[in-house]
Design a protein that fits this description.
The protein is of the alpha/beta class and 122 residues long. The protein contains six helices and five strands.
């Protein structure tokens, strides 16, 4: 297990880790699966690379967008989801079962300006 840390001061004591790495995308094949918060950028980058993902939303945020995104990927069968951080250990032991029948993610390109102009002029 290797951890990626964010901007905070916490540094893991018992696991190997590295600071946020913009080059992580190039190293994805080194890992079996990923555990991530429910950040859209992270989730969809991993899905585009066909990685197995366990999503753990931050339920303590004032806004509920992470909970909503976790519900979206779960209801669309794109990722394994663990709603409660205290259940992560169990979710890890079940990662193979939880990710074996997921739907492949198909990225849909969205260009708002192009689509709006097409709508206006067609």
């Amino acid at each position: 297990m290797t951890l990626q840390t964010g901007d905070g001061a916490y540094k893991p004591k018992y696991k190997s880790f590295f600071d946020f790495d913009k080059g992580l995308k190039d190293r994805l094949p080194e890992y079996d699966f990923f555990i991530t918060h429910a950040g859209a950028g992270t989730i969809f980058m991993l899905l585009e690379q066909k990685m197995r993902v366990l999503v753990v939303p931050n339920t303590e945020r004032a806004d509920k967008h992470q909970i909503e995104l976790a519900q979206y990927v779960k209801s669309n069968n794109l990722c394994a989801v663990c709603q409660n951080v205290s259940d992560v250990a169990m979710a890890i032991t079940e990662i193979d079962r939880a990710t074996q029948n997921l739907q492949p993610y198909e990225k849909v390109e969205f260009n708002a300006v192009r689509d709006l102009l097409r709508y206006i002029y067609e």
